From TrEMBL, chains A, B, C, D:
Gene Ontology annotations of biological process type: amino acid metabolic process
Organism of derivation: Vescimonas coprocola
Keyword Nucleotidyltransferase: no
Alphabetical list of Pfam families matching this protein: Beta_elim_lyase (PF01212)
Protein name in UniProt: Amino acid lyase
Superkingdom of origin: Bacteria
Lineage: Bacteria, Bacillati, Bacillota, Clostridia, Eubacteriales
């Protein structure tokens, strides 16, 4: 069985494991106050060209989204988000559990637009019953989106302009940030992304780490007391160094970007396998997640030897499914998938 | 200026004021443990043919919806609701503030159907990521709905059947219950409604009281400790007798039903005024709220002398608006409205 | 049976009932946007000598405390409070239900001191684990306290100085404010209280109204968006005018102060009744609540004809209990109590 | 510099690192549904002699306490806890952030007693204002306590009896469980602990793992839907196998118990070092945490070469501090500490 279900099927990139092994018996203080975390923070600040940014390490994506959003909003505010956004769909109500509504905007490609945000806020402000309606307090987007798509520099710039005009902090969920930055056609660098939002995070769990997400707070107004809420939400590891050690390794010699590019290239092969075989795609994704639409019968055959993630039913006999590549995807496994898909067509 | 904006424009029905005046200097214990509340509870149990029901009095609708829903759900559960439901639209995020997602189902007439609920729950249960998705934990409907429409007995029966099959308590928001029960064509009596749900409330604020909503808990499993959460949510009045006194009066000599019928009849005249003048309606409402769609220019003229509530833009030059009747609406004011609308057409 | 259990045994002062009756059929818009609320706001601003203050009306004390505290704090902050404070003891966990810890300071007389607050904050800031400990974010006191005692002008000034020095908003729970302001020996006027805190409320429920509390926000930084959270917490009455009408009456011709003074004077008679009979007092209260300590046997006899509130056991055969006076307490009832207590001693 | 500050100064026990390295490139599904987690669950069930128990893996202690307590309580309930309990002191208000009060009971040694719980619940039930007071809904204890002390079998049995009599689930925080079970004089085995509570957790972070806590749910009534709330609270790792791999190793060949015993033995040497030198102890701890009380001057000298954790000031010139041993503590470092302490006395 070969798995393409997700980008968190294996442990960590060997360079990270090596550093974890090498430092295992060193004594450090806890909760992220150690020298490894300090070093990793500097490397991330440098990579973002943001020496003033605050950098904090958390364990996973749901925890990170919840902590950031709860830290930004006031009790009567909600977060604007694409209806397909991870916080709306797949976090078991974590945002609502902190008291905040996820206010959804429609989308077909996982993205929301500047005019959508502007129109919503204007409608809210001008409604007679404005104080009876949850106040939009920030905007959440993911880059890449849950469908693997990307905002262009023009789109993100326009969106951030609207956010600033209305005083809405913009938060970018970068659980798969590397796969976006390194994608064919992507026109946003890491420093550009950093400077086009108020706070974002650099995903580690899905990009080579055992676990870990690095929150980068760009807007000084959002920095105060963040470590208090991290602790409150269970987000400060006793052995916080584990996060510092891993991010230090990821941001040494461009490892984060190199392994992201490898995954994207493997994903392009996977896309070609399905497209060449005549399968349409749910999303036009230039990143590591690919979503072919296949007949259920053929999926059943393929599923005997290959793992994928079921996404959604598209009609009574077809389904959209997800195949992911990652830093760990091998050419050998992709070749095996190619052979299997081609065999379906014979 | 004559107001038709809402059904809470005046104080209380004179019969209630009389009883409040009459009892004003009587000493009673607080927090709803007094004899007036006890008497009102019995009258409501009788009116519902539900001698075993628990009856509690709260001050307003948002407080009531929040308290009931927070009492029923577990932390990882959400409440299924029409996208137009009051808890989703006009309670400033009160439900989310208790940690729960409002899970919306599409609707055009304010109602949701048994198959919609069934399909959603089946989808949730069978999704690979079920534990990553908020668990539906109860169903909320309003009767009448926010558009003034009504569930038929067949519809409510089928919905409640599905709810019971899936273990989802059904909660009916009856902020305007009287206007529904007494509507032309309504085929549900108060006792029938009571026995086709797990918990509901009988609205007083919009049906003749100064304020007050009577929660009726039919399902024994939901009764325990409800007064604790009422207190926690600020829902137990020190002078709780004020609620008992008013509900006692409302449920004496069918006052609640008589004033509701009056409002419906006034509303039918209002509907006829607009329909006769050729205006379409947003909703086909048999209850006290009527929603004509009018050209903005004519609304501006009418608005000089008549108050209404803006509902929504229907096209660049037309809007849907709300005209309400209540226990206090006079024939004189309705006649004035008729003359004004007819004048628009000349 | 004559009740002295509390100060909310009757309805409203007749002047308020008169005004409610008189305005009953007037049409107004809802949710506190009416002209009665506007007029009452001005009268309260004038009474406080605080023309810039924001004034909002809520229904009850628990709702008011919860709404104010939730509006002020950030998620990782708690509220400093005497261990005997109402929010810690008798609100069924309402504050915690909004996510905030009530951080208690010891007290014997219901008051906390400036040095206590300073010491706590300094300890918190200097603890190695500061980020693992709830951050104190505001200070709550009650005036009068739950034991009927009062802060002197010197004490409140010193406390507010410390609060400002540490950036902690000071909130005064004035559920019984009138009884404090008019007490023998009280050296704080209403305007002085207003200017020695960031936000406070003027209690109506326990001082002559059917219900209602007037929140006065002095600190401009706390004003923004308060009506959103009022709505979210169920604190905006549809017929908000009921609050405006009552507070308008209370702040016309010094009614609020006159009825408060009456209650205090009745309470002094009650205190003398018990002290003359040789009973010690739990608290040295100059306000409308008096707390004699009595043998359980004598309480049982007295309880046959007089209602009081049980407070606490002081030893195996004695209990401290509460007798309250209010605007409605009559000389006749106090005389009856005197006779009954004197009879116990024969 | 040699650190004795805590038991989470190093990475993981080498046996765990070996297994993490060995399995690093194996593909598994995520979120704890993998075969390593399955195997670890069985080993823990066996170690607890509780084949029916549910076992779930979370990342850290605050997350675990919060998730368990939020899963057990209803909104109007609080958790009874020693005033020194970790959830009350050092979790930044995590419990309150889920809406629940931590109801504290006094203690001098970190433990609470069966009579204390009984008395509190009886007082709550019989208070006139019971519905105005947070309802006690469960009991939290730690084993060992925050002071390193242990409940005896008799004490825990009596406590659990009271809990069951009053319907209060008992939750044991076992962040340092191994150090308790293996302590001199401890008369409770792991299976006995498991069967004397409703839910507990076996700490990994402080007992040899990189991170990880194993929740063991003994009471069937508490099992339902626990994975939903784990996800909601950010407690399900994408690479959940990391937890399974580590707990599998810890529960192979009694590793968990062997390394715990090593730590306790090192701690006894540390205790003897201080006691022999004439320093009193804050707590009489038979486990891996030792708390000497020392003059501040001598602490300053010792602190130049040895790390410890500041605990509390005991008088103007003395402080109680914590020295911890762990699986990683070496004889060499303990000898160095002995020499340094003896040198203070010369």
């Amino acid at each position: 069985m070969i798995y393409f279900n997700s980008d968190y099927l294996e442990g960590a990139h060997p360079a990270l494991m090596a550093k974890l092994n090498e430092t295992n018996m060193v004594q450090t203080v806890g909760y992220g106050e150690d020298e490894y975390c300090a070093a990793a923070r500097v490397k991330i600040q440098n990579a973002c060209q943001a020496p003033e940014a605050d950098v904090h390490f958390l364990v996973g994506g749901t925890q990170t989204n919840t902590t950031v959003i709860a830290a930004v909003l006031r009790p009567w505010q909600g977060v604007l988000c694409a209806v397909s956004g991870h916080i709306n769909c797949h976090e078991a109500g974590a945002i609502e559990s902190t008291g905040h509504k996820v206010i959804t905007l429609p989308t077909t490609n996982g993205k929301i637009t500047a005019p959508q945000v502007q129109e919503y806020v204007e409608w809210h402000r001008n409604d007679e019953s404005t104080e009876h309606i949850v106040q939009p307090g920030m905007v959440y987007i993911s880059y890449p989106t849950e469908g693997g798509t990307l905002y262009s520099k023009a789109e993100l710039t326009e969106l951030y302009d609207v956010c600033r005009r209305y005083g809405l902090p913009l938060f970018i969920d970068g659980a798969r940030l590397g796969y976006g930055v390194m994608a064919d056609g992507a026109d946003l660098t890491l420093p550009e992304i950093a400077h086009l939002c108020d706070v974002f995070y650099i995903g580690g769990t899905k990009v080579g780490a055992l676990f870990g997400e690095a929150v980068v707070i760009m807007n000084p107004a959002l920095k105060k007391d963040f470590r208090f809420i991290m602790k409150q939400r269970g987000g400060r590891m006793a052995k916080g160094r584990l996060l510092g050690i891993q991010f230090d390794a990821l941001f040494t010699d461009d490892l984060y970007f190199r392994i992201s590019r490898h995954a994207d290239e493997m994903a392009y092969q996977i896309r070609d396998i399905f497209v060449s075989a005549g399968y349409p795609l749910l999303f036009d994704s230039p990143t590591n997640q690919q979503y072919p639409i296949m007949p259920d019968e053929e999926l059943a055959i393929l599923g005997k030897n290959f793992g994928y993630e079921y996404w959604e039913r598209t009609d009574p006999t077809h389904s959209g499914v997800r195949f992911c590549a990652s830093w760990a995807t091998t050419q050998e496994n992709v070749d095996a998938l190619r052979a299997a898909v081609q065999a379906l067509k014979k």
